[in-house]
Amino acid sequence: MKFTIKRTAFLNRLADVQRAISSRTTIPILTGIKIIADRDGLTLTGSDSDISIEAFIPIEEESNQLEIEETGAIVLQARFFNEIVRKLPEETMTVEVLDRFQTSITSASASFTINGIDANNYPHLPVIDENESFHLPVNLFKQVINQTVIAASSHESRPILTGINIVIENEQLLAVATDSHRLSQRVIPLSMTPEQAQKTYNVVIPAKSLIELAKTLEDTAETIEMMVTENQVLFKTENLYFYSRLLEGRYPDTNRLIPDQTATSVEFDAHTLLGSIERASLLSHEGKNNVVKLSVNPDRIKISGNSPEVGNVEEEVAFKSMTGESIDLSFNPDYMKDALRAFGQMDIKVKFTSPVRPFILVPAAEGKEFIQLITPVRTF
Amino acid sequence: MKFTIKRTAFLNRLADVQRAISSRTTIPILTGIKIIADRDGLTLTGSDSDISIEAFIPIEEESNQLEIEETGAIVLQARFFNEIVRKLPEETMTVEVLDRFQTSITSASASFTINGIDANNYPHLPVIDENESFHLPVNLFKQVINQTVIAASSHESRPILTGINIVIENEQLLAVATDSHRLSQRVIPLSMTPEQAQKTYNVVIPAKSLIELAKTLEDTAETIEMMVTENQVLFKTENLYFYSRLLEGRYPDTNRLIPDQTATSVEFDAHTLLGSIERASLLSHEGKNNVVKLSVNPDRIKISGNSPEVGNVEEEVAFKSMTGESIDLSFNPDYMKDALRAFGQMDIKVKFTSPVRPFILVPAAEGKEFIQLITPVRTF
């Protein structure tokens, strides 16, 4: 194998693939990056066996300045190879496999020779039937990911809760995550062929995979293709394939958790409320119980936090409107901060049923497309 | 004590003082910041007992929007207080000491009440005789600090080597640091009164103190005043006092370490050489012995590094001129990188005497004002 390429073009793709590579893997060859040179271009592959990423650098794209003198394949230690490429002196670089998988990387007068591994030993990626695919709008799907992963569990005690449950049916995609203290659910419409609209998919994708996927998705891409098999999902853009394993098991029925009654409803500017919660949480973080107290009355909404060792904070929060009964309750401010940040700058409604039952946050412009739920903390 | 102030003005000064505050101190009150309000303004003090910083916010500077309603003093937990001030909702804030050192911090409708400590319990700062002072040019002195601290030792086995030896005599300031493997020395001229020029100062200031000092020095200030007592040094700009303890003991005589003969001299562009060393060190870092090899011949200068597990790198380095004998030697590339970065973008000369004796780096434009020395590593 021997090729010459523009260093920056190569580095961008290397960075994409590197997201899948973990230095903590127990399979030594997976600390490496697989490079295949064929007549169409270069294929780079990285994997931690949960996530695999394959990036393609086409020879026909002139800006890559890619020339392949000899086809072939090699696996090179990823972290190290990346550092070398980043530090090379010239705009272009040449990679050549020599005897016994030794690989030379040259640029101007600098010449590295590093030990490679036979690419035949690299694990095969899952084969996914490309017939069963549908398109997702990139920007909207990134939003779905960022808005739901916050509520996924980070504890392995119930592995299924570390994933996002994605249900596709009736020409819409529903994503939901819960760590059993809070929940985030988002729905987006999909455009599908009549045939696709007939089918239903229900999968649980590790939140970690989706977080990495969101990072690799360029905003320039308009749509991404999604394909599902029994235990794998593949997301595909023009030159990037992103594989993730699926979580096994049944995702809990979250629908019954969302209250359908409202005793009290308050409309806030999400950003203003976030500022108040951040201040209150400064003190709650110092205490044993990380809770802040919200006190809702028709004429006055108050947030307070306290820590016996440090002191207390109290603030009157500006709100847009309030309907229903007065209510006092306590909650974990970190859940509230995550939820409010996911809304960004918009008006929201917070709907309470009772001090001990979950309350929900929804966009003030109603609709069911985005719901966040938080369970209060009993303090009495 | 009660005052109102523009939050951003307060935060800037708070950040300066916070540099001196360590959360790892064994003296609880030193995790706090002392605030004194008097008729002239606010004085903030932070200290970790090695370094103490005092910042003054004058009432007469209108941009501070400082109003003092009641004079007084308090000590508040620094990290926490800083976070509160940063998160307050409005442009101005009010601090008021209530009963039993409880202190309220209010801004718009947000109101914090935190536990303070009696300011009388705060340790006193050293008293330094301000008569014996002289002026240092700020920009040049920052350069001196940044160019010498790199060679100071970070090991406490010989505490004196963790400091910078500063010698002021004959209207010049000499700063030198060495960890016994390398050395960095810088000399700058001082403008002094005839009376000052008579005196000699020879002190060892902890490198850590000087690093913090360099960070607090604003480039807008032209000169800084330096005052020395038996065991303390004070650096003083208009509204900032920076105290550091001095290291006790005799600094070794470094003059005899600097070779006065040259067998081989090579002129490089410092930046180009740095690039080559960085590449070579990628491989040396992987090996047990972190060394790279330099091979100097009249027609060719080569740098190489290798690690049996990973591979090797070899590079021909561009140089401007070379005089003297051919020489091969090995050294720690990290020392070389630090040294070259301290020169920045300029032409330098590297002067060798023998493969086992220290070599030096100086600006190509000669002069003795800046010398860096590195001891080679014996590899045979």
Automatic annotation (TrEMBL), chains A, B:
<comment type="subunit">
    <text>Forms a ring-shaped head-to-tail homodimer around DNA.</text>
</comment>
<feature type="domain" description="DNA polymerase III beta sliding clamp C-terminal">
    <location>
        <begin position="256"/>
        <end position="377"/>
    </location>
</feature>
<keyword id="KW-0238">DNA-binding</keyword>
<dbReference type="GO" id="GO:0006271">
    <property type="term" value="P:DNA strand elongation involved in DNA replication"/>
</dbReference>
<comment type="function">
    <text>Confers DNA tethering and processivity to DNA polymerases and other proteins. Acts as a clamp, forming a ring around DNA (a reaction catalyzed by the clamp-loading complex) which diffuses in an ATP-independent manner freely and bidirectionally along dsDNA. Initially characterized for its ability to contact the catalytic subunit of DNA polymerase III (Pol III), a complex, multichain enzyme responsible for most of the replicative synthesis in bacteria; Pol III exhibits 3'-5' exonuclease proofreading activity.</text>
</comment>
<dbReference type="InterPro" id="IPR001001">
    <property type="entry name" value="DNA_polIII_beta"/>
</dbReference>
<dbReference type="GO" id="GO:0005737">
    <property type="term" value="C:cytoplasm"/>
</dbReference>
<dbReference type="InterPro" id="IPR022634">
    <property type="entry name" value="DNA_polIII_beta_N"/>
</dbReference>
<dbReference type="GO" id="GO:0008408">
    <property type="term" value="F:3'-5' exonuclease activity"/>
</dbReference>
<dbReference type="InterPro" id="IPR022637">
    <property type="entry name" value="DNA_polIII_beta_cen"/>
</dbReference>
<keyword id="KW-0239">DNA-directed DNA polymerase</keyword>
<dbReference type="Pfam" id="PF02767">
    <property type="entry name" value="DNA_pol3_beta_2"/>
</dbReference>
<keyword id="KW-0808">Transferase</keyword>
<keyword id="KW-0548">Nucleotidyltransferase</keyword>
<keyword id="KW-0963">Cytoplasm</keyword>
<dbReference type="GO" id="GO:0003887">
    <property type="term" value="F:DNA-directed DNA polymerase activity"/>
</dbReference>
<dbReference type="GO" id="GO:0009360">
    <property type="term" value="C:DNA polymerase III complex"/>
</dbReference>
<protein>
    <recommendedName>
        <fullName>Beta sliding clamp</fullName>
    </recommendedName>
</protein>
<feature type="domain" description="DNA polymerase III beta sliding clamp central">
    <location>
        <begin position="136"/>
        <end position="253"/>
    </location>
</feature>
<dbReference type="InterPro" id="IPR046938">
    <property type="entry name" value="DNA_clamp_sf"/>
</dbReference>
<dbReference type="Pfam" id="PF00712">
    <property type="entry name" value="DNA_pol3_beta"/>
</dbReference>
<feature type="domain" description="DNA polymerase III beta sliding clamp N-terminal">
    <location>
        <begin position="1"/>
        <end position="126"/>
    </location>
</feature>
<keyword id="KW-0235">DNA replication</keyword>
<dbReference type="InterPro" id="IPR022635">
    <property type="entry name" value="DNA_polIII_beta_C"/>
</dbReference>
<dbReference type="GO" id="GO:0003677">
    <property type="term" value="F:DNA binding"/>
</dbReference>
<comment type="similarity">
    <text>Belongs to the beta sliding clamp family.</text>
</comment>
<dbReference type="Pfam" id="PF02768">
    <property type="entry name" value="DNA_pol3_beta_3"/>
</dbReference>
